[in-house]
Design a protein that fits this description.
Largest sheet: 4 strands, antiparallel
Radius of gyration: 18 Å
Structural class: mainly beta
Strand order of the largest sheet: 2-3-4-5
Strand content: 35-45%
Helix content: under 10%
Order of helices and strands: EEEEEEEEEEEEEEEEEEE
Length: about 220
């Protein structure tokens, strides 16, 4: 049985000086003096860090912090490495002329692949299935869709629950369940075939993130 947990962060006076356990190590820097990066992702073996600065996705070597490569995209809203680290998925802005938002960067060749899909180009979260075969992303019509990694065609659609922008998606470690949540506070559990498990639930406030615990027994909102 999956148990829903809620974590609420409370602001406390600075004078309390409670240790966080976090230690500053170092920083990556964009060479072009853009706005601060707001999106980051690290590959599975912790060797490459991706960060978004303005309309540029920059890859850095985690050990040396040197820039490896950069790619230009307009209005990037989400980035995520595949579980095996071979690809970096990008969700970017689309236009009337260019009807695509979901793109893949192949890490070995440091190149943007030709295949693409039109998801919700404002989606703030995308998620890879644990086996790397699918990418879950909010679709252009408000539902959540599974895109095949091979050609980014749609395999399944999770429909009938969200009528507000989807803000979080996560696969359980074994890929058997998926959780989705939206800005109204509604969240739902689905199985790997895209069928709703039980009924959707209401948290009552906007969901910023939703994650399964590493052992898959708990859900953190």
């Amino acid at each position: 049985c999956l148990i829903a947990l809620t974590i609420t962060l409370l602001l406390v006076p600075v004078a309390s000086a409670v240790p966080t356990g976090l230690t500053y190590m170092d920083s990556t820097w964009s060479p072009n003096d853009p706005e601060d990066g707001k999106l980051v992702a690290i590959n599975s073996n912790n060797t490459i860090l991706a960060s978004v600065y303005d309309d540029e996705v920059i890859l850095f070597d985690v050990e040396t912090l040197d820039q490896i490569s950069s790619f230009s995209f307009e209005r990037v809203s989400a980035i995520e490495f595949s579980p095996d680290g071979k690809f970096l998925a990008i969700n970017k802005g689309s236009s009337v002329q260019v009807r695509e938002s979901l793109k893949l960067i192949e890490i070995s060749s440091m190149s943007i692949l030709d295949k693409s899909a039109l998801a919700d180009d404002r989606a703030v979260d995308i998620a890879w299935s644990p086996d790397g075969q699918y990418i879950a992303a909010p679709g252009p019509d408000g539902d959540v869709e599974f895109y095949r990694t091979t050609d980014l065609s749609v395999k399944d659609t999770l429909y009938g629950v969200h009528n507000m922008d989807v803000t979080c998606i996560d696969f359980r470690y074994d890929g058997e369940y998926i959780v989705t949540g939206d800005e109204s506070g509604r969240y739902a559990m689905w199985n790997s075939s895209g069928h709703l498990q039980g009924v959707s639930r209401e948290y009552g406030e906007e969901l910023i993130d939703c994650k399964f615990s590493p052992d898959g027994q708990d859900l953190v909102l």
